[in-house]
Model the fold of this input.
Amino acid sequence: MATDRELLTTRSGVLRGAVDAEAGLVRFRGVPYAAAPIGDLRFAEPEPHLGWEGVRAATEYGPTPLLPPESVTSSIPEPPTPGEEVLNLNITAPLERTGPLPVYVWIHGGGYVSGTPNGGWFDGAELARSGAVVVSITYRLGLEGFGHIPGAPDNRGVLDCLAALRWVSEEIAGVGGDPAQVTIGGQSAGGGLVLSLLSSPRARELFRAAVVHSAPLPDITPAEAARLGARLSRELGIENTLAGWRTLSRERLATADRGLDAGGVWSSLTQLHRALSRRGALTPVGPIVGTDLVPEPLAALAEPDARPMLIGATSHEFNPATALLEQALGRTTPAPVLGAAGLPAPLARAYPRAYPGQSAAALLGQALTDRVFRTSVLQVAAARVRAGAPVAVWDFRWHPADGPARHCIDLPFAWAVLDGDRVERIAGDHPPLALASEMSGDIAAFVRSAVVPWPEYRPDAPVAKVYDETSWVGRDPYRFERLALEVL
Done:
């Protein structure tokens, strides 16, 4: 017979989770927060789930918007799970509750075309044991979630996140969570969605704080989204209408998503120039800005708003992406190459001086890292300061002996999952446990208190915390990027 702690009663029905008595946790997996987006609901705003009879098992991960095949090269495990009820979430909560608990809602990354919360890294056991309820959510990906389709609402992936947050607001008390103490967090595309939600008037009352890892600023305009939709409809041989798009299977759309190369703005010199020159959107699909749902992010983030934020990036996010250019560029003098790739002349000259001895290809990688992630940290932080919100910045610099502090390397430290599947791919064989305890502890303290755990960032006092073998808090770790923004 199920115990009270194994059961969660929601408006849709009763769920049975799984108790881990040894860990002191209860978990609910594959919990639908909205109806399956199929039939008339395909490409529509998410609708409430119609519910079920009896007790529904919630012990296995739910279906994912991500379809097979599973990536064998991804740093993060991203197992696709078949099924139609792809709008679902996972909960990890403490068994022992002394009162309403703070809640951390996680939005995974994946370039807006891939990713899933089901791989194990985002279980949140360590955070839950510290006294929080952890929720990880799915959202529609690629063209299903973000493509512009005449007759359908734009930003369906953002609408999914809103629906999940509303579910949390209404139901999380059933596992001891406090809907008034919700923090949202995300990395990469998930971080971009956090910024979209912070910008959105419709999300204003749904969370009190935010954690942002390595987030590109959402930048797709309605015109760019419309052009892409029209072009793809021609290439796919369908009418550019809601009815026309609904004739396509999920599998065919997933193939189209993979063809967009949404995670690879660096995959050709043309795309690299597009990114470094700041001409056009960074990714083909993603949040569409300048709309009622998602206003222009930097302007919206600067509107009066006291919700605090932790934000940061790794030191060499996308540096490895240009390694394929090493042979082609060889010992070419870097400054002309950087200029030809789209950097303003003062920056093209500044990078070789700031990073002496680096090849042209390596400097292109650093410039890409700075353009997509590191300068965005400073832009967002400055906007939040203008809004009146406390904001603390971090710079994750630790790296294994044989590689850089690349994209995603901070996640196993933030989630304290150094023994997780595939962690060794980016963090090596013996990543420092003390650093994981420190970073995950900082985030846990912020989730519990909504108080930034080190001195606030200000443009005139650009303090940040550097996570490294020995971490430190000091002035201006992002000095080069700050000066680069002045040039840009």
User: Anything to note?
Assistant: The two ends are 64 Å apart (CA to CA). Residues 360-387 form the longest helix (28 residues).
